[in-house]
């Protein structure tokens, strides 16, 4: 179907709202250059990159003004640039939304309000990123340090 249908299958939103969601999801320029809302999305989105497919899904959530959004490894198969675009979109447009992020890329969760560390199906710790990263005995601190991830510009 068309991009319009993929974003808004029930036809509840006008064209300006669709473009707003695409722009917020960093896809506006790409689709403006490629037939706009009439862009034909192939079965399983095969004519879009993995990152573009993820951003279309995010645009759909932005358009619906979703109150609860679950992201299960949403950026695991995308490059770092697309990952950053997803994080920026979440920060800019989903501030009034509960976002549950399941991720192995640790930098993906550093801007979260709360982090739940699960090991072999059991919760081992819960806290804000700052709380967990200032406790050098925390599992999260160990994972971030081992991965060499920076937090507020400093490597842990």
UniProtKB/TrEMBL annotation:
Pfam families: ABC_tran (PF00005). One of its GO terms (molecular function) is ATP hydrolysis activity. Keywords: ATP-binding, Nucleotide-binding. Gene3D superfamilies: P-loop containing nucleotide triphosphate hydrolases. Residues 36-76 form the ABC transporter domain. InterPro entries: ABC_transporter-like_ATP-bd, ABC_transporter_C-like, P-loop_NTPase. PANTHER family: ATP-BINDING CASSETTE SUB-FAMILY C (PTHR24223), FI20190P1 (PTHR24223:SF415). This is ABC transporter, putative. It comes from Ixodes scapularis. The lineage of its organism: Eukaryota, Metazoa, Ecdysozoa, Arthropoda, Chelicerata.
């Amino acid at each position: 179907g068309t991009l319009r249908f993929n974003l808004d299958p029930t036809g509840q939103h006008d064209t300006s709202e669709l473009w707003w969601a695409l722009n917020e999801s960093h896809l506006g320029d790409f689709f403006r250059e490629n037939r706009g809302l009439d862009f034909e999305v192939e079965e399983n989105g095969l004519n879009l990159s993995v990152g573009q497919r993820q951003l279309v899904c995010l645009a759909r959530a932005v358009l619906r003004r979703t109150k609860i959004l679950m992201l299960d490894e949403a950026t695991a198969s995308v490059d770092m640039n697309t990952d950053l675009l997803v994080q920026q979109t979440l920060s800019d447009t989903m501030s009034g939304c509960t976002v549950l992020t399941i991720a192995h890329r640790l930098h993906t969760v550093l801007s979260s309000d709360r982090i739940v560390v699960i090991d072999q199906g059991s919760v081992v710790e819960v806290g804000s990123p700052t709380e967990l990263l200032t406790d050098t005995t925390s599992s999260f601190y160990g994972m971030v340090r081992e991965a060499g991830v920076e937090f507020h510009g400093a490597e842990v």
